[in-house]
Design brief:
flat; single chain; alpha+beta; AP5B1; 883 residues; TATA-Binding Protein; AP-5 complex subunit beta-1; Immunoglobulin-like; six-stranded mixed sheet; 37 helices; 53% helix; 10% strand
C-alpha cells in the first residue's frame, strides 16, 4: 500500500469528518485504520498532518475501533509510536496528542479495565511521566507532556471515580514539590482524587474509624475495581452524603485543604473555580470541617472582576448559605450583581450572566424551594432603578432588564411601583414606534416579546392593556404582514393567561377591523394575511363568526378572485371556512356559509379548491354540527381511520403536513446493482415489500459530466422482477468522476422518504470507446488511419499532444492475455507480438498505443491529443499489469 502524502491525508481526513458512515461504506474499517496507523509511523508525513490524522481517533473512536481486538491493536500501535519518538521539543505536540488518542480509544470503547494489558501499561506510563517533578530528568522541554499526562489522569479519575484513590500520598507529595507552571495540573489532579476518595468513604456512612487517614497515606497500586462500575458523580448527590472523621483525621484533612486554598491564587481563574468546587464538595461531606475555612478566600473573591471566580462565590453560597455568608454579605453580593449588570467595560454576554444570577440568586433563607426565576428578598425597587431598559440597549439586554424590573414592580406596591410600570409601558411604546416606522426583523421580534412580557406581568392594569390593544390594532392595519407575529402573540398569551380575556379581546378587535375593510386593491393585496388572522379568530367559540362569513362572501362575490383561480388564496379561504364549520354557533351563519361554498365549488378556476369546497358544502348540508366537528378534527393517530382517508387530508391537520413532509429514512431500503458489464444499466433492489413513486436523483461532484436527469420508477415489489434503469452519461471531460445518488420514494402508508444510495463511480476505463468508424471498413484502412493519427499526434510546443512510454516486466504470453482481456475491442492490428490500439474518449480525445515486448519487458508507447489523460492512463496500466 503506497504511502499517502500530507496533502492527500488532509483531503482524506476532511472527507471522513464530513460523513464518517458514508466514508467507511466505500472502504473497510480495518483497511483504513491500518493505513492510518502505518502512515503515523512514516517520516514522509508532516507532524501537523499526523496530528490531524489522530483527530479521527479523538473524534470518532467508535467508528474506527468497533471491537475490543481492534482497540487493543490500535492502543498498542500508538504506544509503540510514542515510545520510539525522540524527547525533542519539535515532537512534543505530537507526543501529547498520542497520549490523548490512546486514552480516548481506551475509555470510549470501554476497554480501560484490569483485563486489558494496554490499559495497565498506559496508566503506569502516565504515572511515570508525571513523576519527573520539576523537570529534573527530562528537562523543561518535557513539561507539556507532564501537563498532558496530569490531565489524562484527571480524566481517568473523573470517568472511574476512585481509580487513583490508593495513590494519594504520592500524588500529594508531587503536588507539594512541583513549583513549575505544571503545578496547576498537579493540584487539580490531586483535588479530584481527594474529593472522590472522601465521597467513597462517605457512602459507607458513620465514623470513618481511621479509613480517611489510611486513604490519605495510601501509596499502593491502582484501584482497578473502580473501572468495573462507572459511577456518575452528580453535584447534588454530595448533599446526602456524610463523613464523620476523627479529630486527628479532621486536623490532617483540614491542613491539606488549607494548603490547597493557599495555593489557589497561583491558578488561572477557570482552574480556581474547579479547585474551589472540588473543595466545597469535600467540606460539604466532611461535616467536622467548618465552611469558615473559605473565609480568607472570600475577601479576595468579593472584589474579583473575573466571571469564573465570582461564580465560585455563588457556588459556595448555594451550598453553605448562612453557615458562611452573613446578611451583610448577601446584601453586598446583590448590590455587586446589580452593578455588574451595567458595567461599561463588560461584554453583553457577561452582563446577561449577572442578570441571570439575580434571577437565580442562592439566598440564605429563600421563600420558595423551586428552581424557577425568583428575585432575592433583599432586592428593592431603589436598587434596580438604574436597570431601566432603553432602545439603545441590545435586544437581549432590553428584554432581560424588562423581565427583572417587571418582577420587581409586581412584588412591590406603592408609588414607585406604579411609576415603574408606567415607565415600562412607555418603553414598550417606544419599541412600537420603531416597528411602526418599518423596523427591521430583529426589532419587530423584540417588540412582540416585550409585549408578551408586559402582558404576562401586568395584565391586571386595564388602562395600559386597553392602550396596548389600540396600538396593536393600529400596527396591524398599517403592516398586515405581521399577521404571524399577532397569531403567535395570541397563542402564547392564551397559554400563559388561561382564564384571562385579553387574548380573546385582541382577536375580536382584529376581526372587527378586518371585516370592515372595503374590497379595494389594498385589501386584496393583503388578503392572505387577513385570512390567516380570521382563521385563528374562527377557533374562538366565544367570538361570533357572522361578520367573518359576510366578509368572505363579499370578497368572493365582489372581486375577480375566482376568475384568477389562485390555489394558495383559495385554500386560505377554505381554511377559514373549515374553522368556521367547527364553530359552536354554526346555525346563525348557515345560509351565508352555504352560499359561499356553493359559489366557490362552481366558480373558482382551480379544480383542487373546487373539490375541497364541494366536500365542505356536502358536510355542511348533510352532517349535524356535533358530527361535523368530530369529522373535521379527526386524527388518524387517535382513531382507526386510515392514514390516507380524505378527511385527514382535507382538514389540514398534522397528518396532512406529515404526509407532505419528506422524511430522512433511518436505513437504506434501496440499492442499485449493475446488470450489464460496460453499460451503466442497473436493477433496483428493495428490502421493503413495496415502494411507490421512486425517483432516483443524481448530483455531480464536479463539472466533468452533464447533469443526469432524474429517473422515475413507478413501483417496486419484493416478489416481482426488479426493474432495470439505464443511465445516460454525457462527459464534458474524459476524466473519472463520482455521482452522489439519492432516492425519494413513498411507502404503503403514504409517507414519503428520502435516502442516500451508494455513490455512482465512473472509472477511466469505462469511458473507452472504439474509434467511431464504419463497420465495413477493411483492416488496411484502419491500419492506415492509425498511422496517420500517430503522425498527427506528434507533440510540439504549439499543441497539447504528448507521448509517453510505460514499461513492465512480463512475458509475451502475459502481454497477449492483457491485450486480449482489456483492449480487444480497440485493437487495430496484432502482428508478431506487436499491437496497435486506438481508443476514443468522448467528447473529442484519443489515446493511441503501440505495444510490443522486448526481452520479457512489455513496452507501451503512447500518444494522445490531451496530455492530461496520461496520469489516468498510467494508473490504469498499472492496475491491469499488476493483476
Amino acid at each position: 500500500m503506497a504511502e499517502r502524502n500530507s496533502a492527500s491525508w488532509n483531503r482524506k481526513v476532511a472527507s471522513f469528518c464530513s460523513e464518517p458512515k458514508t466514508f467507511l461504506c466505500d472502504s473497510s474499517v480495518d483497511g483504513f485504520l491500518g493505513e492510518l496507523l502505518k502512515d503515523l509511523q512514516s517520516e514522509a508525513i508532516h507532524g501537523q498532518t499526523k496530528i490531524l490524522m489522530m483527530d479521527l481517533l479523538l473524534e470518532f473512536p467508535e467508528f474506527l475501533c468497533p471491537d475490543q481486538k481492534t482497540v487493543e491493536m490500535t492502543a498498542e500501535t500508538l504506544m509503540n509510536i510514542l515510545k520510539k519518538m525522540p524527547s525533542s521539543e519539535r515532537s512534543m505536540t505530537l507526543r501529547c496528542h498520542l497520549l490523548l488518542a490512546i486514552e480516548t480509544v481506551l475509555i470510549t470503547c470501554e476497554s480501560f479495565n484490569q483485563n486489558s494489558k494496554m490499559a495497565q501499561d498506559f496508566a503506569s506510563l502516565l504515572m511515570h511521566i508525571i513523576s519527573d517533578v520539576n523537570d529534573k530528568k527530562q528537562g523543561v522541554a518535557n513539561r507539556p507532556l507532564r501537563t498532558t499526562a496530569c490531565e489524562c489522569l484527571r480524566e481517568l479519575e473523573s470517568c472511574y471515580p476512585g481509580f487513583l484513590s490508593q495513590r494519594m500520598e504520592k500524588l500529594y507529595l508531587m503536588q507539594q514539590q512541583e513549583v513549575t507552571a505544571a503545578h496547576q495540573s498537579y493540584t487539580l489532579l490531586y483535588t479530584v482524587v481527594l474529593k472522590n476518595a472522601i465521597r467513597f468513604l462517605a457512602q459507607k456512612e458513620g465514623p470513618s474509624n481511621g479509613a480517611l487517614k489510611n486513604a490519605l497515606l495510601s501509596n499502593e497500586d491502582f484501584f482497578w475495581s473502580a473501572t468495573e462500575n462507572m459511577v456518575e458523580l452528580q453535584p447534588s448527590s454530595n448533599e446526602q452524603l456524610l463523613l464523620l472523621p476523627s479529630n486527628s483525621e479532621t486536623k490532617d484533612l483540614k491542613s491539606i485543604l488549607a494548603l490547597l486554598l493557599e495555593d489557589s491564587y497561583l491558578l488561572t481563574p477557570v482552574c480556581q473555580n474547579t479547585l474551589f468546587w472540588q473543595i466545597v464538595q469535600v467540606v460539604a461531606m466532611a461535616r467536622t470541617i467548618s465552611p469558615v475555612i473559605f473565609k480568607s478566600q472570600l475577601v479576595r473573591l468579593f472584589s474579583t472582576m473575573d466571571l469564573s471566580c465570582f461564580h465560585s462565590i455563588l457556588q459556595m453560597k448555594a451550598v453553605f448559605t448562612d453557615s458562611l455568608f452573613t446578611g451583610e454579605d448577601e446584601h453586598f453580593l446583590i448590590q455587586r450583581l446589580v452593578g455588574m449588570t451595567q458595567h461599561p467595560l463588560l461584554s453583553t454576554p457577561v452582563k446577561l450572566f449577572y442578570l441571570d444570577c439575580l434571577l437565580h440568586f442562592p439566598e440564605n433563607r429563600p421563600l420558595t424551594s423551586n428552581s424557577e426565576e425568583n428575585l432575592p428578598v433583599l432586592l428593592t425597587v431603589q436598587m434596580t432603578s438604574s436597570l431601566f431598559p432603553n432602545v439603545f440597549n441590545d435586544h437581549s439586554t432590553m428584554l432581560c432588564r424588562q423581565n427583572v424590573l417587571s418582577m420587581v414592580y409586581l412584588e412591590n406596591e406603592g408609588s414607585y411601583s406604579e411609576k415603574g410600570i408606567a415607565f415600562l409601558f412607555e418603553h414598550v411604546m417606544s419599541l412600537y414606534s420603531m416597528v411602526h416606522k418599518n423596523g427591521n426583523r430583529e426589532i419587530t421580534a423584540t417588540f412582540f416579546r416585550a409585549v408578551h412580557l408586559f402582558v404576562q406581568y401586568f395584565n391586571f392594569c386595564e388602562k395600559h392593556m386597553e392602550n396596548l390593544t389600540e396600538k396593536l390594532l393600529k400596527l396591524y392595519m398599517s403592516n398586515s404582514s405581521l399577521a404571524p407575529n399577532f397569531i403567535n402573540l395570541i397563542n402564547q398569551t392564551q397559554i400563559l393567561l388561561e382564564f384571562h380575556v385579553w387574548p380573546v379581546t385582541l382577536s375580536k378587535a382584529l376581526q372587527k377591523e378586518i371585516v370592515n375593510l372595503p374590497t379595494d386593491k389594498w385589501t386584496m393585496k393583503n388578503l392572505g394575511w387577513h385570512l390567516k388572522i380570521l382563521s385563528r379568530v374562527a377557533q374562538e367559540n366565544s367570538i361570533s363568526q357572522s361578520s367573518t362569513a359576510l366578509f368572505l362572501r363579499r370578497v368572493v362575490f365582489c372581486s375577480d378572485l375566482c376568475s384568477k383561480g389562485d390555489w394558495r388564496t383559495g385554500n386560505a379561504l377554505l381554511s377559514v371556512c373549515k374553522h368556521v364549520l367547527q364553530h359552536q354557533k354554526l346555525s346563525a351563519i348557515f345560509v351565508h356559509l352555504a352560499d359561499l361554498l356553493q359559489y366557490l365549488m362552481h366558480r373558482f378556476e382551480d379544480i383542487d379548491v373546487q373539490d375541497r369546497a364541494r366536500l365542505y358544502y356536502v358536510l355542511l348540508t348533510n352532517v349535524s354540527s356535533d358530527k361535523l366537528g368530530k369529522i373535521l378534527t379527526m386524527s388518524p393517530a387517535r382513531g382507526q381511520t386510515k392514514s390516507r382517508s380524505l378527511s385527514s387530508i382535507m382538514t389540514e391537520n398534522e397528518n396532512f403536513s406529515t404526509m407532505l413532509t419528506i422524511r430522512n429514512a433511518e436505513k437504506t431500503l434501496l440499492c442499485l446493482q449493475p446488470v450489464l458489464e460496460g453499460i451503466k444499466a442497473f436493477t433496483c433492489i428493495s428490502d421493503s415489500p413495496s415502494l411507490y413513486c421512486i425517483v432516483l436523483q443524481f448530483e455531480n461532484t464536479d463539472c466533468r459530466f452533464e447533469s443526469i436527469s432524474d429517473i422515475n420508477v413507478p413501483c417496486l415489489f419484493v416478489d416481482r422482477k426488479p426493474p432495470v434503469v439505464t443511465i445516460n452519461l454525457v462527459p464534458k471531460e474524459p476524466y473519472p468522476t463520482i455521482f452522489s445518488v439519492s432516492a425519494t420514494y413513498s411507502t404503503q402508508d403514504g409517507i414519503t422518504y428520502q435516502t442516500k444510495l451508494d455513490p455512482l463511480y465512473i472509472t477511466f476505463r469505462e469511458m473507452f470507446i472504439p474509434l467511431p468508424l464504419p463497420a465495413l471498413w477493411p483492416l488496411e484502412s484502419r491500419f492506415d488511419l492509425f498511422g496517420k493519427l500517430w503522425s498527427a499526434f506528434k507533440p510540439d510546443e504549439q499543441n497539447q499532444f504528448e507521448e509517453s512510454i510505460f514499461c513492465y516486466e512480463m512475458s509475451n504470453n502475459s502481454l497477449h492475455d492483457i491485450v486480449l482481456d482489456n483492449f480487444s475491442k480497440f485493437a487495430v492490428s496484432c502482428n508478431g507480438g506487436e499491437y496497435k490500439i486506438a481508443v476514443f474518449l468522448p467528447p473529442q480525445f484519443h489515446i493511441l498505443m503501440h505495444i510490443k515486448s522486448q526481452d520479457d519487458t512489455a513496452c507501451f508507447s503512447v500518444r494522445t491529443d490531451n496530455w492530461n489523460l496520461l496520469p489516468y492512463l498510467n494508473s490504469h496500466l498499472l492496475d491491469i499489469t499488476l493483476q
